[in-house]
Amino acid sequence: MNSAEYTFHGGIRPVEHKEDSNTTPIEMAPIPPMLVLPLQQHIGSAAQACVNTGEYVYKGQLIAQAADANGANVHASSSGHVVAIEPRLIAHPSGMQDTCVVIETDGLDAAIDASGYPNWQNLDRTELCNIVRWSGIVGLGGAGFPTDRKLNAKNIKTLVINGTECEPYITADDLCMRERAEAIIRGCEILKHIVGADSVIVGIEDNKPEAIESMGKAMPSSPDWKLVTFPTKYPSGGEKQLIEILTGRQVPRGGLPADIGIVCQNVGTALAVKEAIEDGKPLISRITTFTGQALSRRGNLEVRLGTPVSYLLDYMGYTEQKVPRLIMGGPMMGFILPDAGVPIVKTTNCILAPDSAELPLPKPAQPCIRCGFCAEACPATLLPQQLFWHSKSGNSDQLEKHALSDCIECGVCSYVCPSSIPLVQYFRAAKHEIRTHRAQQLQAEKALERFEARQQRLEREALEREATRAARKAAAKAKAEESSRFADEADPVQAAIERAKAKKARLIQQNQPGAQQNAETALQNLKAKLASQQSSLQQAEVDGKGDKIITALHASVSRLEQQIAESNTEASSQDAEK
Amino acid sequence: MHTSSPHLSAANPVQHLMRQVLLALIPGLIALIHFFGPGVMANLFAACGFAVLCEALVLKLRGYNLHFFLSDYSALVTGALLAVSIPPYSPWWMIFIGVFFSIVVAKHLFGGLGQNPFNPAMVGYVVLLISFPVYMTHWTAPSELASTPSLLNSLASLWSHDNYDGTTMATPLDLMKQNEGQMLTFLYANNPQFGSYAGLGWEWVNLGFLAGGLWMLQQKLFTWHGPVGMLATLGILSALFYDGGSSASGGSPLFHWLSGATMLGAFFIITDPASGATSNLGRLIFGAMVGALVYCIRVWGNYPDAVAFAVLLLNFCAPFIDYYTIPKPYGTEDSKS
């Protein structure tokens, strides 16, 4: 066991309240009558349901499939009938609804047949990644990024295992490490194998001596494996902060830990990976801390995903408060639940039910006196006092200059603010505004592009039209000139009279005996005309003339063909009469 | 009720910070009263009373909640800082004008608490210094050298200032400035206003403010950057131009540290976060520039002391300093061991 040599800028030491919930062992929560499994339980995209209403599902059965690489599979966490696939209130601060698979449990908890790969060493990286992906595993410590995506990183030297759990009140990882250290270490070994890391560093805050002891015992005694402890300070569990504490290196701005050869995974995630690979158990339950003075029993429960919070609150002896506030997550980064009916999801590490003395409501904000306490505490070395100033005035240039996007929303600035300004709320709003603005800008740029392309096309077409018109004009002019040349040679009126005479003569001929011969001549004429029309149709097709012309020529060709056919039958019927 | 994270707060509220500043003034105040008589108490009562009055008036005009904003103690701090800056036994109307400019003009006309680009107390002080140079440049003699009135008489002096005109003397900073041709040792020996290192009494007043300042530093009311920047620059410059205590000497580092408003400025004035630079590097630069200006004006300028001018000039520069001293966010420099 080593002590960390490094630390990070700022941070705070709030009252821990860990002993409220870490004195009892992890307890298995009962099966609720109804399970509500949201199709989206993490950042990324929603999964697509692959069961139907009325279908019987077994525990561990896949009920929703990830739609893309950013999605994660969802499995039934107990057996029963799917009674609905419909929008339900989900665990989101806005109180929004999202599609959920609702299972009425039958209490049998019948599981599908599953077998794992105890000899996972024989499987290659891609196969193991696929199992992790199939099992729907996401980061259980924070935002819930799909784990397999992190494991796909290349050139990884170090696997960092995060057992920090720096938020006050939460003890889920603490208890998990105390009781399931062996399994966690097995998970770490699998993770190490998958990412191809040379070494593993397990980082634990020094306020968890029992967890440190059991993890130390379970760890292989090899120079590649290190257990590092460090002083309790919030937010040392932040991925970037932890990496700095353990390695003294900073993840480059805008980059990922993989850029410096590090992959960071939470202890709970390591456990889930072990269960998925060795036991064939997908992610259908997790350890969640239930704490706060509004509960008569406080401790950690292993809960089935999809269990309504209200069901578990009753189980833990919840007393309704005057100003009811239920927080999902810790007091620093958690959010207030819109309703106790929402289900436990993959990222739910804590349900905090405080009474009003424990977590008093925020005081009204006073003006910012620019004391700079926030800048002293900021783990991202930002200047929250300046960010506050600029987010109030909506100055997005200055917000960018002051690196608003680097804010990890850990909440230490608001925590230390003597004027009780909800700084994080301002920063979230400003970030959102910038995002919206950027999206609008992108849209406007695209619209401009489209508009310009259309303008160009219209201009080009106008030019083409102009060119054809000019060509036609020139042709007409040439024709006119030609006909006027003929006019010099013969009297047009005389010519017309002659044509009329010839026609009359033809008609007389047709109606007179010997029409047979005439009919044959007409047929010949028709055939000649057909040949010429056909050739001009071919020419038109080759020249790529307009559709209209081609259709007209087609029509005339078929008309001529019909006429020829009619003449032929006429001729043959006349023959028959004879 | 719907609130955003974090749901936890352990902040020292603004009123608590302001009370701490007031408490930190006590050692300096005791020294002032001990060496210059209770006149400073009369200043203090009058200035604080006027400050709260002005603050309440403006808050009412601005339609703000009186109780909520008055209870932040910020007006009292401004009043107290102005009170210890001006000479004891000043007439009430002068104090009122100073407070009016501090609270109404420098603070509220610019937007109120936290929005003032200039240090309110120093604005009030400079307005008085420029408008009433005769009153403002005559500091009471130390009580060892002249008889000082009782507290009651001091309070009475608010209305009948002229009674105590005779008890004023040139301050050590005046003497140092006007020194022509005397070695420092002779200057110290020839003038009873000097003590062992700096002015008689002034040494203790400054040490008192230093003690209060160090306590605030220990309480983490501000970072060390501003005060260290100012005192270091002042010390370095006075050491450079000490000239072995010759007649051309500008005075020793100790003389400058312990004279006039040095410690009051270093710990109570330039640490005003609203009008100063905001990043640590910025505060260091801000303090250093104040220290340099204080020395320059004291030794080569027209005024014997210069903290107020130096601070106001640097208040102008604070946004500029801020612009160039934005700290690099996490991840911009590789490992920092």
How is this structure best described in words?
The complex is a heterodimer of chains A (578) and B (337). With 578 residues, chain A is an alpha/beta fold. Chain A has helices at residues 125-134, 147-151, 172-195, 209-218, 239-247, 267-278, 309-315, 373-377, 384-392, 396-401, 412-416, 423-489, 492-511, 515-543, 547-577; strands at residues 2-3, 27-28, 34-38, 47-49, 56-57, 62-66, 74-75, 80-89, 97-105, 158-163, 199-205, 225-230, 262-266, 285-291, 299-304, 327-328, 335-336, 350-352. Chain A has a six-stranded mixed beta sheet, covered by helices on one side. In chain A, strands 1-12-11-10-13 form a five-stranded parallel beta sheet, sandwiched between helices. Chain A has a four-stranded antiparallel beta sheet with strand order 3-9-8-5, with no helix packed on it. The mean pLDDT of chain A is 88. With 337 residues, chain B is an all-alpha fold. Chain B folds into two domains: 12-169, no CATH class; 170-320, no CATH class. Helix content of chain B is 59%, strand content 1%. Chain B is globular. Chains A and B meet through helix 5, strand 17, helix 8, helix 11 and helix 12 of A and helix 1 of B.
Multimeric state: heterodimer
Total domain modules of chain A: 3
CATH fourth-tier homologous superfamily of the largest domain in chain A: NADH-ubiquinone oxidoreductase 51kDa subunit
How much of the sequence of chain B is in beta strands? under 5%
Q: In this structure, how is the largest beta sheet of chain B organized?
A: 2 strands, antiparallel
What is the typical, i.e. mean, pLDDT of chain A?
88
The largest sheet of chain B has its strands arranged as: 1-2
